[in-house]
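User: Can you predict the 3D structure for this chain?
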Amino acid sequence: MAKVRVMQRAGLEEKTLKELYDDFQLDNRVKNLSEMTIRFYEQNLVHFFRFMEEIGIKYVREIEKKHIDKFIVWLKKKGLKATTINTCYR
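Assistant: Here is the predicted structure, written as structure tokens:
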């Protein structure tokens, strides 16, 4: 099973998705990204977090490629446009 390789730094694999998201948004604020950009990330990541919660994924270390693939199929079943799905995927 291929795992998504987002876990390069020590300890990252022990983080929950919520902790990783909070770190990401803190970093965005430190970088002085606009509030619109920060809200954009929030609005697009909500789909991912909802799906991960539905399938019982809490920790970054649990995410595998198959979960990302299933996420894309889940978005398609929700009737989202291809542009929205691609944005969520990125």
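The helical segments are 17-30, 35-54, 65-77, 82-89. Confidence is low (pLDDT under 50) at residues 3-8.
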